[in-house]
Each structure stands twice: as structure tokens, then as C-alpha cells.
Amino acid sequence: MSVRVLLADDHAVVRDGLRALLATEPGIEVVGCAADGREALAAAAALRPDVVVMDINMPGFNGIEATRDLCAGPGGPKVLILSMHGSSEHVFRALQAGAGGYVLKEAAGAEVVDAVRAVAAGRRYLSRSVAETALQAFLVEGRRSRSPLESLSARERQLLQLVAEGRSNQEMAGLLSLSVKTVETYRSRLMQKLGVNDVAALVRFALDHGLA
Question: CA distances (Å), 38 to each of 8, 53, 58, 62, 194, in order?
Fold first, then answer.
């Protein structure tokens, strides 16, 4: 029985390359593609893949939040993160959200295939290129200090990503189905929680923590 794979990446060239790569592998079938986190959730519900190969940095609703939703309940697909980011913060947040594997985009095609098969079989797979020190710190010894992101709600994390993308209050209100006043309230609350004084500092925080 073939492993059914859904590809989620906002770059068409990456999706096309992954589809071409996986199409040559026996026992793997690409059943669909998505360009952002929300599309990935909808496609996963409709297509019921075994594995979702997920990018982290996607506009509007990023791969970490999409992974968290996909892995929240029983019976969902396994998630393999395929990202250009190899920092310990990115890796930890992906695994904390429920991802079964993490591979860097610089990895060889054969490693991506191995990772898909491993994650589909219920095993954890971490790219050889991920720093050993980061793995020790976050997976073996345990993480002693909490990330400031853990104090934020899902809505606040989404708003933070949109701020980092340079969206206006009006754009954020439309995307989140909120009033402009509510968006302004959320943004003020974010600044208070994170201890920053202006939007520029808020954007820097989002970049440092892998939200944009």
C-alpha cells in the first residue's frame, strides 16, 4: 500500500521539485499540494494523506501552527517539516507542535525520501544537517527555559506572524475576521506580553523565533 503524501510549501518550484522526486519512488504517491497552512489543513481533511511534508515559513498561517492543528487529535497525518531553517528554536518548536521529522531543504533527495518513509512508519527522523548540540539541548536533556511564544495564544501567534509580514491593521482584520479595534488591542497585548515597545521590535522578535 502506497504512502500518501501531501506537499505544503508556498513556492511552486519547491512543490514541483518534491512531486517530481517522490513520483519516481515506489510505494509513495503524492496526492495533493497546498501553498499555505490553511490550504494544508483543508487538503489534509479532504485527501487524508499519511504524511504531510510541510514548510515552516508560509504566509498567513505558518507550518508550525498548521502542524499543531494537524497533530492535535487522533487519526491525523504524520508531519515531516522540510525547512531552510536549522536553528534549535525552529527544530524545537516543530517537534513540540507534533512533527515526526525535520529535514533541511539543503538535504539530498534520497534523505527526503528516507524521511518520508520513516515518518510514515511512525519513526522520528531528524536531518543529518541539524546541529547535534541543538538535538542534545532540546531532545535529550530537556528544555529548561520556556520560550516566550509559549505564553501566547494561537490567535496571538498568528497576529504576530502577520505583523512580521508587514500587514496593515486593516489587512489583518480582514484575514482574521476581526475588527480593526480588536486587532489593535491584540497588538498592544502582544507588546505587553513580550516586553517590546514598538512594531519594529515586535517584527525582530518574530524573526528571531521563526515566525517569519
Answer: 10, 14, 10, 8, 26
d(CA 95, CA 109): 22
Q: What is the pTM of this model?
A: 0.72
Cell output for 51: 504524511
Kindly report the number of other CB atoms within 10 A of residue 109's CB atom. Answer: 14
* Domains of the chain listed by start with CATH number: 3-140 (3.40.50.2300), 148-208 (1.10.10.10)
Whether the Cβ atoms of residue 65 and residue 37 lie closer than 8 Å to each other: yes
Q: What residues have CB less than 8 Å from 136, skipping those under 6 apart?
A: none
Please tell me whether residue 158 adopts helix, strand or coil conformation.
helix
pLDDT tens digits for range 55-89: 998 888 889 999 999 998 788 899 999 998 877 77
Question: What single-letter amino acid sits at 194?
Answer: L
